[in-house]
Amino acid sequence: MEWLSWxxxxxxxxxxxxxxxxxxxxxxxxxxxxPRIRKERQLNREAHIxxxxxxxxxxxxxxxxxxxxxxxxxxxxxxxxxxxxxxxFEVIVIDDGSSDRTSERVIAEFRMKEIDLAIRRYFDxxxxxxxxxxxxxxxxxxxxxxxxxxxxxxxxxxNFSKYPYFAAIDGDSLLDRDAxxxxxxxxxxxxxxxxxxxxxxxxxxxxxxxxxEVEEIxxxxxxxxxxxxxxxxxxxxxxxxxxxxxNMLLIVSGAFxxxxxxxxxxxxxxKVNTVGExxxxxxxxxxxxxxxxxxxxxxxxxxxVCWTEAPSTVSSLRSQRRRWQRxxxxxxxxxxxxxxxxxxxxxxLFALPYYLFVELLSAVFELIGYVIIIxxxxxxxxxxxITVVMFLATVVYGSLISSLAVxxxxxxxxxxxDVKSLLKLFxxxxxxxxxxxxLTVLWRCEGLVAAIRQxxxxxxxxxxxxxxxxxx
Amino acid sequence: MVTVVLxxxxxxxxxxxxxxxxxxxxxxxxxxxxxxxxxxYQQVLSPYLAYLAGENDHEPDLPxxxxxxxxxxxxxxxxxxxxxxxxxNEKRMSHTAERFLADHYRGILLKGSWAERVNTxxxxxxxxxxxxxxxxxxxxxSLKDEDEEYRQSLRVLASFxxxxxxxxxxxxxxxxxxxxxxxxxxxxxxxxxxxKADQELPVPVKLGMISYFGETGFYEHLPYVxxxxxxxxxxxxxxxxxxxxxxxxxxxxxxxxxxxxxxLWEERMYAARLxxxxxxTRYSTSLMQLAGDPNWWVRFxxxxxxxxxxxxxxxxxxxxxxxxDLYARDMAKQLQTLRxxxxx
Lengths: 472, 344
Hints:
The complex is a heterodimer of chains A (472) and B (344).
Chain A: H1 2-40, H2 45-54, E1 61-67, H3 74-82, E2 89-96, H4 102-109, E3 112-115, E4 128-134, E5 140-145, H5 150-160, E6 165-169, E7 173-175, H6 179-189, E8 194-203, E9 208-210, E10 213-216, H7 223-245, E11 256-260, H8 261-267, H9 277-291, E12 297-308, H10 314-334, H11 345-360, H12 362-379, H13 384-412, H14 419-429, H15 436-452, H16 468-471
Parallel strand pairs in A: 1-2, 1-6, 2-5, 8-12
Antiparallel strand pairs in A: 3-4, 4-5, 6-11, 7-12, 8-11, 9-10
Helix pairs in contact in A: 1-7, 1-12, 1-13, 7-13, 8-9, 9-10, 10-11, 10-15, 12-13, 12-15, 13-14
Chain B: H1 2-52, H2 66-81, H3 87-100, H4 102-111, H5 114-126, H6 133-142, H7 148-159, H8 163-170, H9 177-186, H10 189-197, H11 203-216, H12 222-227, H13 234-247, H14 257-260, H15 265-277, H16 284-290, H17 296-308, H18 312-322, H19 326-337
Helix pairs in contact in B: 1-2, 2-3, 4-5, 5-7, 6-7, 7-8, 7-9, 9-11, 11-13, 13-15, 15-17, 16-17, 17-18, 17-19, 18-19
């Protein structure tokens, strides 16, 4: 049994070092993101975008809304898109072979009329069967195609779209009225040097949304959703901003991102046989930029511009996390040749290793850590000192970093209207290591196993609809 | 080891709790200030608007607390600035801003944070605080980064008609066409004439000007635009054709003809679009040919142009049923059902 004890002891030390290093890395990224956040903290963002809202040659955009069985929320999403404050855009809802009444809802609500198709084919997609144009809003279109998955639907949308930039948005998300202006601003200011941008995605559960607009921001009651809000703060305010500042952003959230169509076409469009198509596309765009030795950039903007419905049940959250982890694993595997490859500079030498060791494999390290803590306490496999240190490392790694993100959010955007919300978020963030993190770690490990076994499903979430009018 | 880790974690937690307490207090203070600002704003809104509009000579009292006073005035004047027209109203607004805000803004330009300075520059422009022109210019000259602060300084100077903006434009500095147009929109007419007269203007500036002229639709600039459709630079020719589409005018239809058979698909596309907008039936045959062009955009523009002709429906039906090119038939069918020219 001595060898087992030695093995557990060694694993414990490795895990402690790992967690301490990752915590330091988070703090380092926070320090990289900090100055930018500090600089823009008090900026009047309405005045900031006023000019481009009136500019007649602000690049026109096609807004693509892939929808698969989204009859509950699709009308609300489309209406939120139509209300966008932007000089020139079209909205294209892509019904990806839904078996519910997604198309019927859109056709009836917006009085659509069928149009004949003469589509360009940048990419091959599942067959596009019909297309409709709204008689009320002529810049609103619906295309109906055979089921091919979200990536395939987006490719079909790109084929159909007519503008040089496109925004991809999930069917269950809502955009702020100024979302397109804010997200396009870096592209416009850089005169096209920025080829894609992603904004901050917020969780809408708990907030009051009327007629597709967020009227009052409030916290949800369910702890599982509250924890996801905290998790999003950490991911966006620390992770993405830090990476974006170094031009190493690897994820523009599938919920909302803006892309230069030409660059996406050059990169080959969305890959259809993966569940992490959003990240996979960004990695391929980086590859295409570096291969061309272009100086184009992919940027993240700090403004919270997109609202999405978070899973509110354990089973839907589990399904989402398994899918995310599987997508991440597939993307890293697909682009393994870029990993640690100096040709791809920061992407190959930092961003991809970061996603491999921190975002993907941390689940495995953490799971082993939890097992050792529990086994250490129950069976005295290792000394109590090691158990305590591991426990503290876990707390620092999870709870304390999360509470730091909550404070960062309050310092920058302070979107929640009262002090009570701040205290509530801070309090819950300190509990992360004790229940939420072990759960997500377990699900992420399941996702990793599914990726290795090439198994798993899309795990679509049962939508409740986040707009009051929709629910009525 | 345990003690060290315990200490590190403890200190980290304590720091965060201290930060939490600080942020909570600041939040509470911020909420109170916002409520105060909102209350005062509601109270003075009507009387102050009456005063600014010259309907009442008595100026309502404003709070003695500088922070609240500045915020209330900024809110009041911003709303007022976006709704007024006429030199007299602008003058009264600028006069008020000058009395209460100019010194405060001078201080911010010298010592404020980056965000405060940018916000202030937006307000200086909105409130037409021309008395701050020299301070803004000095500030602009001290800037090292070409970021939003640099751009907003130039916008302010352009709105004051400052010569330094012309120098920046003429120097051919790498600024975006969009931003160039933002400056052009603000510059006085005399500055635009000065730019038009300059034979050595860099191409990007020409592009910005032509695009801006198309956008305004002012006929005094039309000859300048038309003169550039034969320019040796492809981008200048394309911008001119695009601007003519916005003008919906060309002095002689013959000038379109070479572009209908150009080697560049963009020129064919604009020529087709212009022919449709001007309903030049003499080009119907060319447009029918272009409906089968190898490029999707040209096919679309050609069929859209055919649709705009007086006998457009007949032409499209003919193309949809009998065009020798399969793609042209598809495109014509699409245009028969698609509502065009209505994009937001």
